[in-house]
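Lab manual, section 2.4: Encoding a predicted structure.

Procedure: take the sequence of the chain (183 residues), apply the prediction step described in section 2.3, and record the output as structure tokens. A sample record is shown.
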Amino acid sequence: MFGYPFKTIFLKSEQNRQQIKSAIELHTFLSDANYKNTNKNVKSFYGEVSSQDFKLETITKKKPLVNFIHGEIKGIDNEIYIIARLGSLEHQRMYALFIAVFGICTTFLLEALYKSSNYYAPNFFSDPMKTAMLVIEAIMFLIIFTKYRSFKKNLQSTKEFLLDIWSAKEITKEEVPLVFRLQ
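Recorded output:
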């Protein structure tokens, strides 16, 4: 879908849960460590990490990474499956809100154009409500476009970064055992 700044990726690693967690922690400024930087390594993320899931927000500008990564670590022993949801916005409901506002403004503007007999009526923009809706619509389009472009630009490098730190390979959803796909 055009403009949809979210993607779920499935990874398989031969490491165990503790190694996966440690690899994430090396690159994360932990929110549950009393906001202390535990060592002097350059951190790429801020967030929460456990041996079962993680919730990360990108804080570095040095590496091209997507803004948010939420994931689950599933599996046993040295057969770990990581389900990571990458996104330009933290929640999909924010994207839905932007699309809804954009759609509502478009509907009202089209209705106003339909009611005016001349599409190029000089008084169309003299109404402050129509002008405000047009400005809101332009802002929403700009936000959606910018988030999507940033997401698409950083998606591949984020995948490569995650594959590298976990010594993992990308797999399809069907390759993940059914028991681990259920939520």
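Check your result against the sample. Helices lie at 17-26, 92-115, 128-166, 178-181.
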